[in-house]
Design goal:
The protein is mostly helical. The protein has 12 helices and no strands. This is ABC transporter permease subunit.
């Protein structure tokens, strides 16, 4: 019990120290700027699409002289847009009607932000967190930590610090959505959108666990940051290919998709809370599994 208490205390101490150090680095600034750029671009594109659809509808309706026909044309245009959006949700949900229905509970602008964020996060994490262990191995600063904490606590602390960093930056990414939406969309509901963003926030942080697993594995296998960056991007690329391939293969090979982080993205939007909790547990287990594989090399490495 005492050893377990010390392990977790050391892990949290390392996580807190590494988080404070990461926030002051140029890489964290780059990650924050890239994420804010993604959030701003996706929000702006959504605003432009909505404006284009409204202008096109207004132009068609303006060309109709009869009042009744104007009302009918406006209603038909709204129904067509609603049907198109419903079809898009069905595609995003991978054909799952339950998930598509739950996706519809999110404001469209928030859903666009969350979905594209989930798509961009793996590559942003790979480009910024690849040296979470390899950087200390390269500089040999890990030797000083190893005198006071176990290597397992060191790796866990590094992982927790990166998850917390992603959660902080994901929180910042909400600002462009609220600012751009309230500035350019007349019917934008700030409170409803804020509540929906807060619902999506834990999803981004938990999904980061699944992505950090392969990245942490790569970072423990090599000593140099350059090699770690290459391996992290290579691992995620291979896992993405495996995930896509598994979608079109029969069981049991189709189950291979659950070994990739990308399989868990859609399941966070299942209407059943227990299903979402199991999906979150799957992300954490995936992170633990890949990090453990890399740890088998790291724990025997000469520091």
């Amino acid at each position: 019990m005492a050893a377990s208490s010390t392990f977790w205390r050391d892990a949290w101490l390392i996580a807190g120290f590494d988080l404070r150090e990461s926030i002051r680095t140029r890489r964290a600034l780059v990650l924050a700027l890239l994420y804010l750029l993604v959030a701003s671009i996706t929000s702006y594109i959504y605003v432009e699409v909505v404006k284009f659809a409204e202008e096109a509808t207004a132009e068609v309706v303006a060309g109709i002289s009869d009042t009744g026909e104007k009302v009918a044309a406006a209603a038909a245009a709204g129904a067509a847009q609603g049907a198109g959006y419903t079809g898009l949700l069905y595609v995003i949900a991978g054909g799952d009607q339950q998930i598509a229905g739950h996706l519809a509970t999110y404001p469209p602008m928030v859903l666009v932000f969350a979905w594209l964020s989930l798509g961009a996060l793996p590559w942003l994490i790979a480009l910024t967190s690849y040296d979470l262990v390899a950087g200390d191995l390269h500089l040999r600063t890990v030797r000083f930590v190893a005198l006071r904490a176990s290597r397992g606590a060191f790796v866990l602390g590094k992982l927790l610090s990166q998850v917390l960093l992603v959660a902080l930056i994901a929180g910042l990414g909400m600002l462009p959505v609220l600012l751009i939406g309230s500035a350019y969309l007349p019917r934008f509901d700030v409170l409803d959108s804020l509540l929906a963003l807060l619902r999506a926030w834990p999803i981004l942080a938990l999904f980061a666990f699944a992505v950090l697993g392969p990245v942490a594995c790569a970072s423990q296998l090599v000593r140099g940051p350059g090699a770690a960056r290459f391996l992290a991007i290579f691992f995620l690329s291979v896992l993405w290919i495996v995930g896509v391939w598994a979608l079109f293969t029969p069981a049991p090979l189709s189950l291979l998709r659950w070994l990739t982080p990308f399989a868990y993205k859609t399941q966070f939007f299942h209407p059943d809370l227990l299903h979402r909790l199991m999906n979150a547990a799957g992300c954490i287990a995936l992170c633990a599994g890949y990090a453990w594989i890399g740890f088998q090399v790291f724990r025997r490495r000469d520091l």
